[in-house]
Design brief:
heterodimer, A: 434 residues, alpha/beta, 2 domains, 10-stranded mixed sheet, globular, B: 252 residues, 37% helix
Chain lengths: 434, 252
Amino acid sequence: MATAFLKQFTNLEPEGPAWLTAIRQRAIARFGDVGFPTTRNEDWHFTSPAPIAEATFEPMRAPTGLPDESTLAALLPGTADWIRLVFVNGRFAPTLSRPDAAGGVKVMSLAAAYREEPSLLEYHLTQRADIVDPAQVFTAINTAFMADGAVVQVQPGVSTPVPIHLLFLTDDAATGGVSHPRVLLVAEPGSNATVVEQYASLGGSRYLTNAVTEAWVGDGSTLHHIRLQQEARDAFHVGTTAVHQERDSHFLSFSFATGAALSRINIFSGLHGRGCGATLNGLYILGGSQHCDHQTRIVHAQPDCYSRELYKGVLDDASHGVFNGKVYVHPEAQKTDGKQTNNTLLLSERARIDTKPQLEIFADDVKCTHGATVGRIDETALFYMKSRGIPNTQARKLLTYAFAAEVLETIPVDILRDGLERMALERFTGTTDA
Amino acid sequence: MIHISDLRASVGDKEILKGISLDVGAGEIHAIMGPNGSGKSTLAQVLAGHPGYEVTSGSVIYQGKDLLDMEPEERAQAGVFLAFQYPVEIPGVSNAYFLRTAYNEVRKARGEPEADPLEFLDIVADRLKLVDLDEAMLQRSVNAGFSGGEKKRNEILQLAVLDPALAILDETDSGLDIDALRTVADGVNKLRRQDNAFLVVTHYQRLLNYIVPDRVHVLVDGRIARSGGKELALELEARGYDWITAEQGVGA
Ligand SMILES: Nc1ncnc2c1ncn2[C@@H]1O[C@H](COP(=O)(O)OP(=O)(O)O)[C@@H](O)[C@H]1O
Ligand SMILES: [Mg+2]
């Protein structure tokens, strides 16, 4: 309930610099003014936040213990040599983390950054993610309460071959609680890095993860951002990624969502220099009564930029997927080249997708296209497989996997792509190599 | 091997197969010829178990079992194979995975051990030579972006890997140039044994120069209008189908 958050804030002893405390106060005041959105808000038309708004979430309790290395390794195979920060129930777990200040990348917890990188924070933190728009009050709530999180700064001109893994876990003690992870990614000019932000559960139920990631992608740099939402099946997840792109920069995002009862994932990028590219891809695999809503927003503010979006959904049982893709092209953004695609595979009569392209174009010399398909299993292919001796269930799963594979193939990190393909294939076929 | 009697099948209200009777014994090759639209593919698809066709009467006994009572995958596991006239593209599923999955399902059904990926690679490498396909095609998606000829050769590759007792080839020759046709025919001839049988559906006599049939049946308007030895194919080549159609018209 809104009053619960307002009350929690009065008891909060906020960490961080004075300027941040002032922003926290503005943020909670904004939330106090506008409250939770309802489906009357256009941006929440297909997703009612009522299950979150009507519940009361306590600040998440400390973990009962810490997971061992083999448990972590099983969450995302092949990541043993990655730079890593682990958070359990919203709290930084230094003993599980392998931060790396060497090699031109600074990776640290938010608390450490308060001490070590005050000017970096002052320049970037809270500068990318909007707290004013009533549709974005979850960002305002995160801003008011942010306690722990990760800060990554890739130094100018540095290319890191090793991905950076930010792992947010819950355990049994997370039940009924809320955490507000905050991530800041800064790719200094001419740099190249890959960040994997993973939300997964080792236990706990009916908790809320309310995450915000801000990213700044400097001149000529490339940032790959892979986001995995694998929360507990009865949990709630709201996550916003707000990106600012400078000239000739590339932001490539992949959102993989299979968890939570209700999830809302916002991925916003502003292209503020010439020659930028934004690629936003995603895959959501839902079953039961899961609801997952992706909102993307690409703002073309300068000429000669491109954006590409490919989102795919596999919806079984009575699950509900939402994809809303906004593309704004400002009057000065001539030669914008945009393409948006949303394809859905419905595995059940009761599954549902709401897909809404929203293109607002104010420049005249642009190429912007969008397309959406909703389909079922291809019966011709199914019969072909069966005619080769492959049983019905297995053939269906294989065709489902094949649908998903097209977008999974766009993941640039081999080991990660293979890992996610394996996870998808396992979910669909019970075997693990294709 | 297979005993088809008075088989009738329709789509909706439209009857396509109007009483087909046919016996194919082990070790035999039978050709099914006939003009376009006479029901050749329908017969092939009905034997493979395509759910879009309703069998309204008749029976099909395959190796002593009621074939019509079996699911498509059970038929395949029991050794029935259809090389499709129009092979289906399956983007996202590699040929290697598809073939190995099918191979292992058929092995399981026979009570034989499954092959692991490496063992399977050995088996398939040998079969690739038979149809003159490159190993690189194994990593490509099933039939996706294949040329017409590659698709047909891929059907024969599957046939060679699955080693069925009854193989039905639906217009495998169409769209093949003469070299590819010979490769495919040589492949089939090498797979011929005393304990398997082939039903070769073709519109042209050309293929039958290379795969010599024991019997030739001419399908016209859903019925077998005439059956004969391999010389019937030559006669059709010389005279076309019209004379049979005409005779059929008189007889009907
Ligand atoms: N699924 C279907 N739906 C409707 N008509 C069909 C279908 N399949 C075949 N037919 C019709 O049945 C007839 C025989 O077709 P087909 O078996 O493909 O002939 P052939 O292979 O001898 O050329 C044609 O008139 C064709 O249009
Ligand atoms: Mg045909």
